[in-house]
Write a structure and sequence with these properties.
This protein has 287 residues and is α+β, with helices and mostly antiparallel strands. The protein is built from eleven helices and seven strands. Strands 1, 2, 3, 4, 5, 6 and 7 form a seven-stranded antiparallel sheet that branches. β1 (162-167) and β2 form a beta hairpin.
């Protein structure tokens, strides 16, 4: 019969303590946090068990999510169509075309030499207006569809990313956003190679991980009781084992990096766009 864990939430380490543990990644830090009891002691503090995992069902899932966060990221609000149009209107080349068309329209209407020129003086400016309108809408529509396609693909990918955790002594298949701090996650170099949250190795058989994406280290890193820290965003390329989940979502190492990247509201302009923008500014000043 599976063990039932009833550790009080007052025994839980804080989210900051667990994040600091993963930042420092020292066995000494783990021992200090657990009064010398290591990963087994940390599992107990989190109301879990190295072999049985969390209870099934996890009755305190809501409290865990409130204390440690969820293994997901806040969904970015989709940009409305009018916003894409507004951003497209800030293109200096388009602004220059609109100004030129407006000046030409005013000049043709106010200073035309005869009635015939005044009668047809609106044609070219209106043609420029229509051209700019079409450019803005085509660009906006492409960006609008691209953003929504990316959102759809991201949701499908999230549903297909399954993990294996031990709860109530049994191995369960869950999605990424169902993983919580205190879970005992199973991994291997075949079907469950991607580490989606931060953890501490419990058991392992010749485990090696590829951390090049985060640390730049080209060689696989061997994991053992001397180096038990499993980092989110890395890939297991050898061995199999179990780990105690200690940080999830935006509080994990890869999550903090991802959050910083997405925090920037403006994407960096390409070199070509910068040159075109500069050229448009020079032309506009030269009149």
């Amino acid at each position: 019969m599976a063990k039932v864990h009833a550790e009080s939430t007052t025994t839980w380490p804080t989210r900051i303590e667990l994040m600091n543990l993963m930042e420092e990644q020292t066995v000494q830090g783990l021992l200090e946090l657990t009064n010398g009891h290591g990963v087994a002691g940390l599992a107990k503090l989190l109301g879990s068990d190295p072999e049985e995992g969390l209870p099934n069902p996890v009755s305190d899932m809501g409290i865990r999510s409130e204390n440690f966060g969820e293994n997901r990221f806040e969904e970015k609000k989709l940009t409305p169509y009018w916003r894409f149009m507004w951003e497209a209107l800030h293109d200096k080349i388009l602004i220059m075309l609109l100004v030129m068309a407006t000046l030409e329209l005013i000049f043709n209407m106010a200073f035309a030499d005869n009635a015939e020129e005044r009668e047809h003086g609106w044609i070219e400016p209106v043609a420029i207006y229509l051209t700019v309108f079409l450019i803005i809408n085509v660009q906006s529509m492409l960006d609008y569809k691209r953003e929504r396609l990316f959102e759809t693909l991201s949701k499908k990918l999230a549903l297909s990313n399954v993990r294996y955790v031990i709860r109530g002594g049994k191995s369960l298949e869950v999605t990424d956003d169902e993983v919580t701090v205190g879970d005992i996650m199973q991994f291997n170099s075949h079907m469950a190679a991607t580490i989606s949250c931060d953890g501490v190795l419990i058991t392992g058989d010749s485990v090696k991980t590829d951390e090049s994406a985060l640390t730049g280290e080209p060689e696989p890193i061997k994991k053992s009781n001397k180096n038990p820290f499993m980092i989110s965003g890395t890939v297991v390329n050898a061995g199999q084992g179990t780990m105690l989940v200690v940080a999830v979502g935006e509080h994990s190492i890869s999550g903090k990096i991802k959050k910083q990247v997405y925090a920037s509201e403006q994407a960096e302009e390409s070199p070509l766009f910068k040159k075109l923008d500069h050229m448009a500014t020079v032309i506009g000043k030269g009149g």
